[in-house]
């Protein structure tokens, strides 16, 4: 039978020392507060609970609390818990100074994040309740390293219907976002003896760095007005592409080039990694089907909820060729890296149709923002040309030659966070320099969009 002291109160680690129980307790509490181990505002256990935990008289604890209240270390009010008093905590000698957090920009137009204020909280909570109510108790145990079967099944159905992916739940692995999935694939490629991975001339350095950390060299492919050119794919071991919506340039890989990539993979045995990061968001064209649908045996389809819902969910997936699962599981360490409840919630969100409804509503909201951006540019900055506007959550603004850096300086002065195109160019890419800004119009919340757009137009050359 559990002892009464084990079932109430809050835990507090103390080691009273010195002469006398009361003095030892008082000194231990004072030292914990003085050094900052007990932060200002921390709620302390009741005198009854702490006395039971320490095996001492309740009056002893009450007297120690009273002494420290009188000294100003603690605060206590009738009917309220005893708490650590608000005060400046002096760090121990030798503690390095805490670095100052960088100031937040007034407006954020950095691409890569959706409007987090529009996350469907009520619908997600509803799905979470249904998922938790119907989940077997085994769902709270250590899980399948591939991910929950409910989510893998729901993803197989959705991806087949909406993205043209040829998916089987047995070939889907749930991961903690695309970067996690890419790290796993990099480890598998290196274990196979791979040395080089072809990448696009424009992309994210975090992805190139992940591959480099796995011991793989990234080699950029040529880029022209038709997008990435796979003509120089030769003896590389794999290729990383964003074929449905090139990041950040915004184009779609031409069907002839899509076919050429698949033909290269079949001929050489190379692996194609398809980053389908925002395939749900298109406005002026029909959706482009996944490259994986052309050859599931050589293409890894990678997706994520980071753009459609929120990156903080840390939920992504890999649709793997049949022979690759065991190697990826080995790289993953045989553990399930994503919380079961979040996986079950996303599965319910997909199956119930809530995900489709959310995407459609978000698509309309982002299209209106894009239209407002294009219209304002035509009115106030006619020398700036918007490209890559048919899909996604960002746009590339082509600037007059030599004006990118001055635009970035003006943006910083305005408190506007925005990136230049040069930031996304591979250091070995042999492409002509283009002056441009990459604007994430999906990032601000609705209430801040109009002022962010105004700040953007103020820094552009007229």
TrEMBL record:
List, for all copies, the residue spans of the domain called HTH gntR-type. 19-87
Extract the GO molecular function terms from the UniProt entry: DNA binding; DNA-binding transcription factor activity; pyridoxal phosphate binding
* Keywords carried by this UniProt record: DNA-binding, Pyridoxal phosphate, Transcription, Transcription regulation
Q: Ribonucleoprotein: present as a keyword of the record?
A: no
Output the InterPro entries linked to this UniProt entry: Aminotransferase_I/II_large, HTH_trans_reg/aminotransferase, PyrdxlP-dep_Trfase, PyrdxlP-dep_Trfase_major, Tscrpt_reg_HTH_GntR, WH-like_DNA-bd_sf, WH_DNA-bd_sf
Pfam families registered for this protein in UniProt: Aminotran_1_2 (PF00155), GntR (PF00392)
Classify the source by domain of life: Bacteria
Q: Which Gene3D superfamilies match?
A: Type I PLP-dependent aspartate aminotransferase-like (Major domain) (3.40.640.10), Winged helix-like DNA-binding domain superfamily/Winged helix DNA-binding domain (1.10.10.10)
Q: Per the similarity annotation, which family is this?
A: In the C-terminal section; belongs to the class-I pyridoxal-phosphate-dependent aminotransferase family.
How is this protein named in the record?
GntR family transcriptional regulator
Organism this protein belongs to = Streptomyces canus
**Which classification does the entry list for the species?**
Bacteria, Bacillati, Actinomycetota, Actinomycetes, Kitasatosporales
């Amino acid at each position: 039978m559990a002892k009464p002291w084990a079932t109430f109160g809050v835990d507090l680690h103390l080691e009273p020392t010195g002469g006398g129980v009361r003095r030892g307790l008082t000194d231990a509490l004072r030292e914990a507060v003085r050094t900052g181990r007990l932060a200002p505002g921390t709620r302390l256990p009741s005198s009854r609970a702490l006395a039971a935990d320490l095996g001492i008289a309740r009056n002893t604890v009450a007297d120690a609390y009273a002494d420290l209240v009188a000294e100003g270390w603690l605060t206590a009010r009738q009917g309220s818990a005893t708490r650590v008093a608000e005060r400046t905590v002096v760090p121990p000698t030798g503690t390095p100074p805490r670095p100052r957090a960088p100031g937040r920009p007034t407006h954020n137009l950095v691409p890569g994040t959706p409007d987090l204020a529009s996350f469907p909280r009520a619908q997600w909570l509803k799905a979470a309740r249904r998922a938790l109510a119907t989940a077997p108790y085994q769902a709270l145990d250590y899980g399948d390293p591939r991910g929950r079967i409910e989510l893998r099944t729901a993803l197989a159905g959705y991806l087949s219907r909406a993205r043209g992916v040829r998916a089987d739940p047995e070939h889907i692995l749930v991961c903690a976002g695309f970067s996690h999935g890419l790290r796993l694939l990099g480890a598998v490629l290196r274990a196979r003896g791979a040395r080089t991975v072809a990448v696009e001339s424009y992309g994210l350095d975090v992805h190139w760095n992940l591959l480099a950390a796995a011991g793989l060299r990234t080699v950029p492919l040529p880029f022209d007005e038709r997008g990435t050119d796979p003509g120089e794919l030769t003896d590389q071991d794999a290729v990383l592409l964003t074929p449905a919506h090139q990041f950040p340039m915004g184009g779609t890989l031409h069907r002839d080039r899509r076919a050429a990539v698949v033909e290269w993979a079949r001929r050489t045995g190379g692996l194609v990694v398809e980053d389908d990061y925002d395939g749900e968001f298109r406005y002026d064209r029909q959706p482009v089907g996944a490259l994986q649908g052309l050859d599931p045996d050589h293409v890894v389809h990678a997706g994520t909820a980071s753009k459609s819902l929120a990156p903080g969910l840390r939920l992504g997936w890999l649709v793997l060729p049949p022979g690759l699962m065991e190697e990826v599981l080995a790289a993953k360490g045989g553990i399930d890296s994503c919380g079961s409840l979040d996986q079950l919630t996303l599965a319910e969100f997909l199956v119930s149709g809530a995900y489709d409804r959310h995407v459609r509503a978000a698509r309309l909201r982002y299209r209106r923002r894009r239209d407002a951006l294009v219209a304002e540019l035509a009115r106030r900055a006619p020398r700036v040309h918007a490209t890559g506007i048919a899909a996604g959550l960002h746009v590339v603004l082509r600037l007059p030659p030599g004006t990118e850096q001055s635009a970035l300086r003006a943006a910083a002065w305005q408190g506007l966070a925005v990136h230049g195109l040069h930031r996304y160019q591979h250091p070995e890419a042999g492409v002509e320099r283009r002056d441009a800004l990459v604007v994430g119009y999906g990032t601000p919340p609705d209430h801040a969009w109009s002022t962010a757009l105004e700040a953007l137009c103020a820094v552009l050359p007229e």
